[in-house]
Each structure stands twice: as C-alpha cells, then as structure tokens.
Amino acid sequence: MIPKLPVWVSAIAGAIVALAGAPFGIIAAAFAGGVLHLSQSVYDRSICAASLRSWLFGFGYFAVTLHWIVEPFLVDAARHGWMAPFALVFLCGGLAVFWGLAQGVAFLATSETVPADSPTFHFKTIWKRERTLALGPRAHAHFLMNWAFALGGVEVLRSFAFTGFPWGLLGYIWVDTQASMLATVVGPHGLGLLSLFAVCVFAWAVLNRHVLPARVGWGTMIGVLIVVLAGMQPMPPARANVGSAEVEQTLVRIVQPNAPQSEKWLPEKARDFFDRSVALSEAAPENGGRRPDLIVWPETSIPVWLDEADVAIGMISRALPQTPVIAGLQRADRLRFFNTAVVIDDGYVTDFYDKAQLVPFGEYLPFGGLLSKLGIYGLAANEGGGFSRGIGMRTLQVGDLGRAQILICYEGIFPHLAGATKERPAFFALITNDGWFGNWAGPRQHLVQAQFRSLEQGIPMLRSANTGISAIIDARGRVTAQLGMNQTGFIDAGMPAARKATLYARTRDWPIIGVFMLWLIGTSVLVWRRSSLT
C-alpha cells in the first residue's frame, strides 16, 4: 500500500480530480486524484475519520471546480464583494458534506468494530468508535464497490436536495469523447457511476500490488486502461452546413451582444446594447447567404418590462419582418416578477415562458422580505423577495419551425428539466447571461452542461449567451458553431437535426435511482445483520 500521509492530502487529491473537468479537461487527473484519495482511505479508523477525509476530498474538488462562484459578487463589489469568500467557502463546504456522507456510509458498510469494553449502541458509538477495514484484495474490492455506489448516490442526491445543484457532475469529464455517448443510455449520473468504478479498479490494483500475482495486477490495470483510452477518443467532427445529412434546411442566427454585466443595466448603456442586438440581427448574412429563419437573443436582452416593451418589440419586428425571434426580458404580474423568454413573430409576442428553476440567493432569497430589511438582496433580483417561479417546463410554438423548449440560464444544468415537457421539442433554445460567471471556468462549464442536455435527449440546442460562449449544439452534444468569450457578433449556421428519443430520454433517472436504492437497501440489511451478531 501507499504509505500513510496527512489527512489534508485528500483535499489536494480532490483538487487534482477537478482538473479532469472543464476548462482543464485532463481526464487522467480524475484517476490520479481518485487513487491517491482511496489509497489513504484504508487507514481510517472511525466513521468520523472517514467522513472527514472525504469531506476534505470534496472540498478540494468543489473549490477548484466552483472557484468562479466569487465572480457574481464582484460585479457590484461595493454592495456584494464582502460576500464572495463566504460564498466560496460555504458552498464548497456544504457540497462536500454530501461526499463526506458517502464515505462514512461506505466505511460503515465495510468496516468491523474493534472489540471494546462497552457494546452500548448509541450515536457516539457509531460515529467515533474505533473500526477497521479488513486488508486484502477481496476486502478492498468490497470497500471500493461501496464507495463508488455511495458517492454516485449522493451525486444524485445533491442534484435534487434543497432545490438541487448538479454543477460539475463527475460524468462531465467525458464531454466530446466517445464515452460521453453512454449518457444517452444511463444519463449523466450513470456515466458518473461508471467513471467511479473505473477509478476503483485502478485503486484496487494499486492497493494490492504486493499481494496479487503480477499478471493479475498489471493485467487488470492494462485492461481498464485500454477501455478508458478507447472512451477518451474524440467524437467525430460535427457538420454545420445546411443540407448535410445531419443538418436541416433551417438557418438560424445566434446573437451575442457582449454587454458587460457591470454596464448592462446602466440607463445610459442599456439602449446601446439593445440597438447593438438589433443591428446584429439585421446584418447581412456572411458570404451573401440567405436570411436566417430564426434569431435567438440572450437572457434579459430586451431591457424593459414586457408590459412596457411595445416600442422595443416594434423595432425588432420592423428590422426582422417575418422572422421569429426568441429573446429574454423581465415580466411583472401585479406584485410578482418573472425572468421570462418570449417568442416574437410578425410584431407580436406569440408566447412566453417564465423561468421555473430559480437561482437561490441570486434570483430569489429565502425570507427575502426579512433579509431585504437588513440590506441583503439577491444578486439578479429587482425586489427584496426576488423573482417568482414560473408554472413549469413546457414547449412554445416558434413560427413554422415547430415547438421549442426554452431553458433560461441556470435551468440548463438540470438533466431532469431538459425534455420534461408534454410534447417532445423539436429543439432546445438556451438563453443565458454568463456575464455573471467570469471569463474562464464558469462559462465553459456551463457550455459543457448544455452539450450534455442535447446529448442525453437527442435534441439540438441553440445557445445564446450575452458575453459568450454562444453555440449551436447538435443532437450528439457536439458544438457545430460557436462564438467565444467577450466577442460581439453572431453565428449563422444550420439547425442540427434531432435524433430519435434516446433510452435516457424515455426512462430519465429512474433506473439509476433504482440501482442506488437497491444498493442502499441491501447494504443496510447487511450492516444490520452484522451488528445484530456482534
């Protein structure tokens, strides 16, 4: 085994694992960090110690993955800057609790209590009583299997608990690779579980390298390495030209006005950014091509309330006659406020969608009325209580192009929201303002999650981001065209064709949740039976 190292090494191991995700994309780092952490986990001697080690592992992972979370607080640093370090520490620490819980459960399920004078059964006995993991290939395999199931299970849990925050799921390290196609069958959580199993095989071989025959240890590692390397092979390039087998005849334009978040709502600037969006929309097609059949603007790109937007909508319609436009703005309904997307066609708003999954502490504050009296407001909210939730996910008719599901910013990170409509959409339109996320990791991670939504459902996506990265994504999750960060311009490209509904689109997360539940029930029974015999 690897010699025992200080417990804080697991935090470094978690940070190494994070390098496998965007924007780094070093897939091997997931295996290096995971093996380092697991090689130290066999030294734990209590559930408390195991949970603490995994909490540090999770904290390191989330601190690197979510370091961009300070960016929204720096947009208006005078009001919110003081919150930035607290937001990073508390968010990463809170998410790491899920990982600590996972390893505590895995340790409990696998370890044996050290004989003690008092067999009294109470919480302190469970939590702090000395326990030990058995050594050897079989015992290590048992622990590693439980660890993979437990960590995979809490990744599902954090996707739903307390409104959910499935950012940086482990399966996302495979974006743009052949392995990512497994998400069409098992979804992102299933892909994450398979990734954990692969890490565990490497860890098992390392832990037992001195007791296994060389051909078994090396054979196992080489076999898994071949599978991993095959999965790491890039997807074949996507096509963006209209008329190809993978692209419909529909031509779309994605507008990126590039309004800095610090200037976006300034009265003297807002009109300029709106005019910029109109100008980009009516600009002549590149290379003398035909006019687009659909134009997509970013989130809140119309800087007035819907009931005051007649002039703005008139300007859009005069500039773009007979061309549907999807755009974002805000809507008021008496004392309720909504983050809204509208479809504009022939001078009218033909339909609208109110954002249903809001950002906690960004678009709304729990107990917002009370906190507003203390001078604490949501970052993107207009009033003390922030925005209200819409009625739920649905599709909107977009001219003659079919029905689209519109996702607004944060909604795109939730696998269970994409495709969760009565009718299967012809395409997704994701409108977002990634100006909140800084210029590096945040926007790139957000794009990766959009790619997975298209891949999982077999539905193309039109992604318009205020400051970038705007993109057109095909039904296999490949970016067919994009406009980079902090660029002003537009994309003209063909609408990728949809695929048949994937297995994951039909079954959603229920099969993988069922797998985790069966494991949890089986493990609980085994632990109970073992404790009743001691």
Describe this protein's structure:
The chain is an alpha/beta fold and 534 residues long. The chain has two domains: 9-235 and 510-532, no CATH class; 249-356 and 391-501, Carbon-nitrogen hydrolase (Nitrilase/N-carbamoyl-D-aminoacid amidohydrolase). It has 16 helices and 14 strands. The strands form three sheets. A six-stranded mixed β-sheet has the order 7-6-5-4-3-14, with helices on one face. A six-stranded mixed β-sheet has the order 8-9-10-11-12-13, with helices on one face. It has a two-stranded antiparallel sheet with strand order 1-2. A hairpin with a 4-residue loop joins strand 11 and strand 12 (470-473). The chain is elongated, with a radius of gyration of 25 Å. 50% of the residues are buried. The model is unreliable at 117-121 (pLDDT under 50). Its EC number is 2.3.1.269. Keywords: Acyltransferase, Cell membrane, Lipoprotein, Membrane, Transferase, Transmembrane, Transmembrane helix. It holds the Pfam family CN_hydrolase.
Keywords:
single chain, 534 residues, alpha/beta, Nitrilase/N-carbamoyl-D-aminoacid amidohydrolase, 2 domains, six-stranded mixed sheet, 16 helices, 14 strands, acyltransferase, cell membrane, lipoprotein, N-acyltransferase activity
